[in-house]
Write a structure and sequence with these properties.
Number of helices: 5
Helix content: 25-40%
Strand content: under 5%
CATH class: Mainly Alpha
Bound molecules: calcium ion
CATH architecture: Orthogonal Bundle
Radius of gyration: 16 Å
Structural class: mainly alpha
CATH superfamily: Dockerin domain
Largest sheet: 2 strands, antiparallel
Strand order of the largest sheet: 1-2
Order of helices and strands: HHEHHHE
Number of domains: 1
Amino acid sequence: MGRAKFIEQAIRGPRARGLRSIEPGAGKPSFRRGDGDASGVAELTEAVFTRNGLFNGGEEPPCRDAVGTNDDGTVNIGDPIALLVRLFLGSSPLPAPGPDPCGKDRTENDLPACQSQSCGEA
Ligand SMILES: [Ca+2]
Ligand SMILES: [Ca+2]
């Protein structure tokens, strides 16, 4: 639900709000899906960063949920591939949140919750 709809329902009163006014993932920290290095932008370097972390002993991403671009609850080679397909072939958007704007993960998985530095504080 967008902010405008939430405000509209808040103005109309509690009967109109119901449970639909609760954002999925409310209370969770926010991040941009695909922005694995927390730079604020999901770009080609993310795919390289993730691949290096997985196979070349590279740096661990600060937010594993962000590099989990296909949102299947694991980080593997499918994630940089999903990002590359999105960036260069214009496939369907990555699962929420993101990569723009910041948001909360709307699915439950075993990846640790993370607050991206580029998204401010939770
Ligand atoms: Ca980035
Ligand atoms: Ca994944």
